[in-house]
């Protein structure tokens, strides 16, 4: 067993993975099952719950108009904010750099449900109505650190002499950054943006407090449907989220170091 | 979603390309997000602190006089029980995560690259799917006619009530937070050269001795940060206890949710939220500095 994982651990490891994946497998399975009563294993195969999903205005709205839209906006804006912050942290030396780095990490240390409650109380005090914007601002707080993390790693892994070479050949600092560094940072930028999207798309803790009646995100809609004992349309919507997130994680694993992101 | 405090990149030394004489471009670059955090993280919690020292009024948002009653109230029997239950469930979750997560972390740390890639994908993918979906899966599995009870009946046993019990809450929490235990542990085990294990075995150590005297002591930094992470995240869990637990045996975050959105007692919710956030931050910073210190020692060695 020199150095390699001992084969004796394998059965245990497989069991743990079964437990880890069981809820997702069950959700996907019942979304294709004919029974209305969350029957697992399903007896038969139907796409009925997916057509129910697309026929339901509340599901379609929460999925596409709220969650997908907020997720994409959050990914774009977080990438802009996070890239700028990461460049500042890696490429410059200034007083308080480490403190600023810790400050930028703070959103990951505060429990999301409490951040949601705190933002709700602030919006309430200022009489700000809940909308997709209140949700988006909240999501940007928690999404941006993932971009900072991936772009920081990308910048540290890059040879700064490349930019210097470009500058010595007559490029300005901005040109050197946009023409040389940015293309090299492609995969860390994309990974950061993907993670920002996923964090926003699957968030429920902030959304429970920041979603309004017109801006119910998919996870919040699922939460209330589960509480009111809905039908397997819940499972169909969940399966769609699982497929989207699974695919995006595969992309990140292909182009970047997945472990760095979590 | 949450944090892993082991991001080695952020602890690394900067490699500046621009000299000190450069204009403070960094301030221009860093200020948008810094302002964002100021307005949407610091100010909200300052507002929470403000609420927490004022009295509740059913007619106004709050009364003007200062009071510490909201904090005194946290020592009432009801709240002490709430904290006790929350901290106890967090502790059980953490212990179960260590027991399940350690072998998994060791396996992954010593796995071939291809196995590792599959293992990491299967670990991280479920972590990123919304909590509410994973909890929904457990409702189906643990329900009255769920998978577990079908199996029990199939074996000729009595079905058991699992859903809406503390057991269900712990199962859900372990399922959701296990990756936060495995990832830091794995990082720490990977740094132990396999040659150390071989040396111990060549010198006649049994597998148990090798584990207890070599692997376990050297993986303590990962173990500490994994435990702190899982513990601090599970004590603020909301969705899992709300959907899998009993409504009379709530956890702290459920109480906060109800006081904010149902009973509108914002001052009371604020003192509770501030107490919970303070506890979490202490644990999280401990985890963060533990990993940073381990990382520095590593580089120094």
Protein architecture, described:
The complex is a heterodimer of chains A (262) and B (301). Chain A is 75% helix and 0% strand. In chain A, 51% of the residues are buried. In chain A, helix 2 crosses helix 12, helix 3 packs across helix 9 and helix 6 runs antiparallel to helix 9 (186-202). Chain A folds into two domains: 1-46, no CATH class; 56-261, MetI-like fold (Orthogonal Bundle). Chain A has helices at 10-31, 48-55, 57-91, 97-109, 112-125, 132-156, 160-168, 173-184, 186-202, 207-210, 218-227, 233-255, 258-261. Helix content of chain B is 72%, strand content 0%. Chain B is globular and about 75 Å long. In chain B, helix 2 (25-52) crosses helix 14 (266-300) and helix 13 (252-261) packs across helix 14. The longest helix of chain B is centred in the C-terminal third of the chain and has 35 residues, at 266-300. Chain B is mainly α. Chain B has helices spanning 8-11, 25-52, 69-72, 77-109, 113-128, 131-142, 147-154, 166-190, 194-202, 207-218, 220-234, 239-244, 252-261, 266-300.
Reconstruct the topology from this structure.
The complex is a heterodimer of chains A (262) and B (301).
Chain A: H1 10-31, H2 48-55, H3 57-91, H4 97-109, H5 112-125, H6 132-156, H7 160-168, H8 173-184, H9 186-202, H10 207-210, H11 218-227, H12 233-255, H13 258-261
Helix pairs in contact in A: 1-12, 2-12, 3-6, 3-9, 4-6, 6-9, 7-8, 9-12
Chain B: H1 8-11, H2 25-52, H3 69-72, H4 77-109, H5 113-128, H6 131-142, H7 147-154, H8 166-190, H9 194-202, H10 207-218, H11 220-234, H12 239-244, H13 252-261, H14 266-300
